[in-house]
Design a protein that fits this description.
The protein is mainly α and about 150 residues long. Helix content is about 75%, strand content about 0%.
Length: about 150
């Protein structure tokens, strides 16, 4: 119960940034914390990393699901200030939201959650080089998007 109160916002924000849907993020959060309850042992000090890893896996599974591909989400307006404690520059966040999920997730984990490259690699089960490459490409795509808007 303590871990839920400590990390519920982090898990939710990661899920929303990955799926672009508050409803899907709520479902994912529920699944993640149910998996936490089923977990018999967690390495002390690694709880957040485990939760982020399970959240990322659940998001990927949802985005790959056949059901998801055959349905269209309801249009929804999200107010970033409700999701993030820090003020977020609207144009930058909109640019991040337009990135493909594989780029968006590394940007989110690196800049918003403060994870190191190696930690992101462990969470996403990819190499550190892949994380660095995705971050580089995401920055370039974001820069191009922001230049177009100016």
């Amino acid at each position: 119960m303590e871990l839920f109160h400590l990390y519920k916002d982090d898990v939710f924000r990661l899920a929303v940034s990955y799926t672009h849907s508050i409803q899907d993020a709520e479902d994912i959060c529920q699944t993640v914390f149910l998996k936490l309850m089923e977990q018999s042992e967690l390495t002390p000090g690694k709880e957040k990393a485990w939760l982020m890893q399970v959240t990322a896996n659940q998001c990927r599974s949802l985005l790959r699901s056949v059901w998801r591909k055959r349905t269209k989400p309801l249009e929804e307006e999200q107010e970033e200030q409700l999701l993030f404690e820090q003020p977020v520059q609207h144009d930058v966040w909109e640019g991040i939201r337009k990135l493909k999920p594989k780029y968006r997730i590394v940007v989110y984990l690196f800049y918003y959650e403060g994870y190191a490259i190696k930690e992101i690699a462990d969470i996403l089960h990819i190499s550190g080089t892949a994380v660095t490459t995705r971050l580089s490409r995401a920055r370039r795509l974001l820069e191009e998007t922001l230049k177009e808007e100016v």
